[in-house]
Amino acid sequence: MSHQIPFKVGDTISYTKTISESDVYLFAGITGDFSQMHMNEEFMKKTPYKTRIAHGVLTFALGSTASTLIQVQARSEMPSVSYGYDRLRFTNPVYFGDTLTATYTINEIDEENLKSYANVEVYNQKGELCTVAQHILKFFPVEG
Predict the structure, then answer these.
(1) CA separation for the pair 96, 81 (Å, rounded)
(2) What is the average per-residue pLDDT within 18-47?
(3) Contact, 59 vs 8, CB < 8 A?
(4) Where residue 134 sits, what CATH number does that domain have?
(5) Which three-class secondary structure state does DSSP give residue 19?
(6) CA-CA distance, 105 to 62, in Å (whole number)?
(7) Residue 83: which domain range?
(8) Helix locations, 34-92, DSSP H
(9) Dist CA 2 CA 136 (whole Å)
């Protein structure tokens, strides 16, 4: 079986989801992050945001979904794991009801070390960049 990474530079995929109040509350329950920024509408009225915002990590998680989807799109038979994310930034707030699109674009292939590098960009419905990172996937040769 081939030990070649199943992507080429420029391969891309997107995943879109509207962030609901339920999403934010479920995420808070899973993570234990019940910050006033996400839970307390009255507190947030006194901030520059004027309303509650979604967890940055929740918005970032959509990029992880896109990472999985690009592997499905490529019909990858080689197992991989997330090796990590670099340069993660939350560049704009995400409000309840915002529709986010996570775009995942392969920008480098390292065949020798069986890694791919991709830009992860999450935009809201206004086209504003809300979350950005670089993702590294590490592939493993299939044994047997």
Answers:
(1) 31
(2) 97
(3) no
(4) 3.10.129.10
(5) coil
(6) 14
(7) 12-139
(8) 36-39, 41-44, 56-73
(9) 20
